[in-house]
Amino acid sequence: MACTYESLPLPKLAAILPFLNKTAMGDASFPFPNPSSYRLGSWWYVIALLSVIRPHRIEWTLPPSSVLALRAVKTLNRPVTRLLAEAASRNAPGSVNTPVLSARCYFLSDWEAPTPRTSIIGRSWTSTELSVQQDSVKSVRRILSEPLALRSAMKEENSCDTLELLQEALDDPRDGLGDYRPQTIRLLQDLVSKSRRLPQRVRLLAVRNRVFRDAGGEAVIWTVELDGKPVIARDARPPENLDWASTDGKLILSTVRREIVSQIQIQHPNVLPILGISSDDVHPLSIITPLAPKGNAFVYLRGLELSRRGSALLNIIPNIASALDYLHQLRPPIIHGDLHGRNILIDAEGNGLLSDFGLSRFKHELTRTMTNIVEGGKYRYMAPELLSASSDYKFRTTPASDCYAFAMTILELMTLQKPFAEFDNERAAFSAAERGIRPARPTGGELEMADEQVVNPLWNLLTEMWDREPNKRPTMFKVNCRVIDIICTDSWYDS
Q1: Nearest to residue 315, comparing CAs of 112, 452, 488, 494?
Q2: What is the spatial distance between Cα 282 and Cα 443, in angstroms, rounded to a whole number?
Q3: Per the omega criterion (within 30 degrees of 0), is the bond before 290 cis?
Q4: Sign of torsion over alpha carbons 161, 164, 170, 175
Q5: How does pLDDT run across 317-355, given as a tens digit for each residue?
Q6: Are 236 and 244 in contact (CB under 8 A)?
Q7: Domains recognised in the chain with CATH numbers
Q8: Which of 202, 219, 255, 417 is most exposed by smallest CB count within 10 Å?
Q9: CB–CB of 327/357 below 8 Å?
Q10: Which pTM value belongs to this model?
């Protein structure tokens, strides 16, 4: 079992470990006081995320033998949530800091190769390696706190070494950077833009047999071969006749590099991982990701038999809620900014994978307008404040606008119709949303889930998520907890 944690006091950790030992871990042992590098069996089969409300997050990795009783991806949820909270409460009576816990369990796909940081977390570290990581963290902290050290690190002749040093510190499994982490990522992004290089952790891949697959407002998507297997290549979609060597072309490539740096720090089983990049004269910077064998969520659900759609959707919704919660809690937070059913991909096991976040910023960096956001029918998913002349959030995506878009995406996947389907015109749909009109609750044949115990509370949650006032929408952490409580019921486990 591998475990990472952020600032979790040992008494709280100790309070829940006996319960975990008894119910999930079998005969696992926990060598205190350094619980940052546990390992038990084949760590990559199952990842259970335990989100702790004030203000911590734990990530547990369990071997197959520890989860033999788990029959489906939903199984480790509400019972674990309830019992963990009770266990913590019994061990810390009257404590104002008693953690409230929620759990998600994920089965990784066969094709989903672990990314480097996941590999780092999942293996045992030698004392020498940990010492090197600690030295990197100390060096980065000094660079960020001393102006002279910062100036020296940013010099062109030192840029390559500084680049690798920053990424090495970010990869520290103990998160030794702490509050310095956001500054480190921003500095790494600035250095990548300045030097036009990426850390060595971003592998340069040799791909071949490029075949056009799709094109959207921000990206052109290709199927390519990597070591004889199909994968996906995504190129930022430039304006027509743009020369990549021009100032505008270089600006787009610089923005892509910054986004890659941001995305390689992400480790979540429901976020599509980056395998590396490829580059040639025609395609100067392609992001390579795994091929999701079952396509996007909209096409996947539409192709299922009516009797299977409900259960498939109720598997996807918690996946994406957890992924968005994770992105929003990163330091600094990552906003998806372009959420809809076609940006949710489906792996071989039917799990949802969040993809294409950050792409909407590529052309926005060039044009400084919101034109790119509203291409391709995206008005229907846009929070009203994004284009409102009187809004403080005009032209600026936020966690609240992601929450709104997620609600519209859930509705789209429930009904297999675009939000505001009664409006043929995209601008008319957005205008209706701006006036406070919201989609009517689907009934009868429009709704492919019949379980009212799920549909009723889920609909109530959607109405909160698309509230007209951004500050009245729940955070994605609260949405994630509500989704788990609504969908992952005891009857759902037994179904």
Answers
A1: 488
A2: 50
A3: no
A4: negative
A5: 999 999 999 889 887 888 888 899 989 999 988 999 998
A6: no
A7: 2-107 (no CATH), 122-195 (no CATH), 208-290 (3.30.200.20), 297-494 (1.10.510.10)
A8: 417
A9: yes
A10: 0.69
